[in-house]
Amino acid sequence: LVVLGIETSCDDTAVAVVRSDGEILSQVVSSQADLLVKYGGVDPKMAEEAHSQVIDQVVQEALDKAYMTEKDLTAVAVTIGPGLSLCLRVGVQKARRIAGGFNLPIIGIHHMEAHALVARLIEKDLQFPFMALLISGGHNLLILARDLGQYIQLGTTIDDAIGEAYDKLAKWLGLDMSRSGGPAIEELAREGNDKSFNFSIPMKQHKDCNFSYAGLKTQVRRAIESKKIDAKIPISSASYEDRMSRADMAASFQRIAVLHLEERCERAIQWALKMEPSIKHLVISGGVASNQYVRARLDAVVKKNGLQLVCPPPRLCTDNGVMIAWTGIEHFRVGRYDPPPPAEDPEDFFYDVRPRWPLGEEYAEGRSESR
Ligand code: ATP
Ligand code: FE
């Protein structure tokens, strides 16, 4: 099997060609970093236009790099949710046009499921059931993956996701936003003292596996104000003292933000092992999982609790087409796909995009079980 994966749920246009033995034949990402800098965030309309402008070319490049044409594909996989509906539609339209034109089955993919399952591409020993902590810009999920398509949510955020907090802090600290805030904070934090600010760990009193980052953000915001850190002065022109105080802020934030993850994971592992004693692995994925500090801290917790950490390489943690193609392969193998759309008008009927789509809800309507 050879599957083309298309991802346009947020600000990256990502396409890849993956073979069922796990060989990545090509992967291309076109990011909208310049738009992000200009508008200070993702504007759905702008993002949609940017996707539309590059989608044909990104798909072509992915095929070329794989030395393939559409005729060599077995199926097309595309993210149908969750995400920005305008953006999702660009990917879905493209997928339908290819599938319709070349008589290929189409597989609608859940973006967060793909973040989790890509771990099975890189770690062949990773069998169900396993646990996953999915940490990105829009999600903070702890799940128990019992089987393909069967996910139990152990915890989610009650407000913001950790990646959002990293991005906000980067903005407040005047960091270079030509890429996302996370890597900039990770780098700066290495220069700082992580105990110089005493932020409190979120949700200490809640004995569950949910997350919260809004309170920590407020604490950090107040500390920034009291230290008179001015985001309008870019860090590159800050005085040594100013730079150090920003680094301390980044390091102290990161320590607590990640401690929160550690505590929740520890509780979740103990709980999940009671339910599924055969669990051996905890996967971390999503953009924030590309952070080395996050990886090291979680590795320790996971090992201490008798499991093994599985973490995809950074470029497979952030949004990518490989995870979509791979998840497509997983579903295709068990017969979960839709038939090719009619060639004469592939966009004839509305393909259900699902901007809000909780993971854990079974694949149901809109998707054939077996064909
Ligand atoms: P979602 O998957 O929830 O829809 P998304 O698709 O925007 O969100 P991803 O590409 O999976 O997100 O992740 C992007 C997020 O990861 C951003 O918030 C970014 O700051 C964060 N991130 C990326 N690299 C790092 C890093 N090294 N350290 C911390 N955070 C990081
Ligand atoms: Fe993502």
From TrEMBL:
Q: How is the cofactor bound?
A: Binds 1 divalent metal cation per subunit.
Q: What are the UniProt keywords, alphabetically? A: Acyltransferase, Metal-binding, Mitochondrion, Transferase, Transit peptide, tRNA processing
**One of the GO biological process terms:** tRNA threonylcarbamoyladenosine modification
Reaction(s) catalysed (UniProt annotation): L-threonylcarbamoyladenylate + adenosine(37) in tRNA = N(6)-L-threonylcarbamoyladenosine(37) in tRNA + AMP + H(+)
Assembly and partners are described as: Homodimer.
What is the role of the protein in this entry? Required for the formation of a threonylcarbamoyl group on adenosine at position 37 (t(6)A37) in mitochondrial tRNAs that read codons beginning with adenine. Probably involved in the transfer of the threonylcarbamoyl moiety of threonylcarbamoyl-AMP (TC-AMP) to the N6 group of A37. Involved in mitochondrial genome maintenance.
Its name, as the record gives it, is: Glycoprotease 1
- Domain named Gcp-like: residues: 23-326
Where does the record say this protein resides?
Mitochondrion
* Top-level taxonomy: Eukaryota, Viridiplantae, Streptophyta, Embryophyta, Tracheophyta
Cofactors, names only: a divalent metal cation
